[in-house]
């Protein structure tokens, strides 16, 4: 299991388009991936669950991946967040 903590810098946080890109990227991997904000952790492959976190700009989130491609999954999600979701 690997874990990384990141800050969401995207102006809209993880809403609508960025959340869709995030879940689509997570879904490409076999590993179980969760995203945690505060004390609440949800399945990173579910857009509805992700949206319940209400992640805004400047929010710290923790990503955890567990499985055969966990390192690749965290790398891909980290790069997506670092790129501000291509915006």
User: Whole-number radius of gyration?
Assistant: 11 Å
The neighbouring-strand order within the major sheet is: 1-4-2-3
Mean pLDDT reading? 96
Percentage of residues in helical conformation: 25-40%
Shape: globular
User: Unreliable runs, pLDDT <50, ≥5 residues?
Assistant: none
Along the chain, the helix and strand elements come as EHEEHEH
Distance between the termini: 30 Å
Question: In what range is the share of β-strand residues?
Answer: 25-35%
Judged by helices, strands and strand pairing, the structural class is alpha+beta
Number of strands: 4
What profile does the largest beta sheet have?
Answer: 4 strands, antiparallel
Number of helices, counting only DSSP H or I runs of 4 residues or more: 3
Using brief descriptors, characterize the structure shown:
87 residues; alpha+beta; 4-stranded antiparallel beta sheet; 3 helices
Would you mind describing this structure in some detail?
- The chain is α+β, with helices and mostly antiparallel strands.
- It is 34% helix and 26% strand.
- It is built from three helices and four strands.
- A four-stranded antiparallel sheet has the order 1-4-2-3, with helices on one face.
- The chain starts with a strand and ends in a 5-residue tail after the last helix.
Q: Topology, please?
A:
Layout (H helix, E strand, L loop, with lengths): L1 E6 L8 H12 L4 E6 L2 E4 L3 H5 L8 E7 L3 H13 L5
Antiparallel strand pairs: 1-4, 2-3, 2-4
Brief digest:
The protein is α+β, with helices and mostly antiparallel strands. Helix content is 34%, strand content 26%. It is globular.
